[in-house]
Amino acid sequence: MTHHRPKTTRTMNHAGLIRISKLAIDRAAPARPPGYIDDVRQHIVEESDTHIWISSAAYDALVAKYSSSVGTELRKLLSWFPIPKKHGCRSCRTLEGRMNRWGPDKCEEYMDYILRRLKRAAKRRGLPFSRWAAKKIVMRAISKARKTQT
């Protein structure tokens, strides 16, 4: 799924609906599993030339269904470790989004890049880093992402 979320306006209108750009949905669709567009269309409550509106509950359900990819799976696996957060640091979220857009095959291709970014993040937080262990965790995230896509 490249697996980034379509751009939304989290402000809700009078009916508690979330606005999503049609262009963002179209850009996300090629990386999503078959049926993604049809699934989104089933939840449309209002529609204009450029946006759709869906309920907050439907949006949350769609995000849960389609956001599980390599970066998301890596974040879930790393959440088991006591990693201190760095205020204002967005590098982990950036890497997560990039890995989600790449998908499993491209993440394997860019493994060295991913491991360098993880090593840099560990150094910034004063944590030990094992390339071997990090690679095993990333490979596990890739495996889990592939299982959720099928």
Task: Describe the protein's architecture and organization.
The longest helix is centred in the middle third of the chain and has 19 residues, at 91-109. This protein folds into two domains: 8-66, no CATH class; 70-149, no CATH class. Helix content is 57%, strand content 13%. The chain is built from seven helices and four strands. By secondary structure, it is α+β, with helices and mostly antiparallel strands. Helix 4 crosses helix 7, helix 5 (91-109) runs antiparallel to helix 6 (111-124) and helix 5 (91-109) crosses helix 7 (131-149). It has a four-stranded antiparallel beta sheet with strand order 1-2-4-3.
Blueprint (SSEs and pairs):
Elements: E1 8-12, E2 17-21, H1 22-28, H2 36-41, E3 44-47, E4 51-55, H3 56-66, H4 70-78, H5 91-109, H6 111-124, H7 131-149
Antiparallel strand pairs: 1-2, 2-4, 3-4
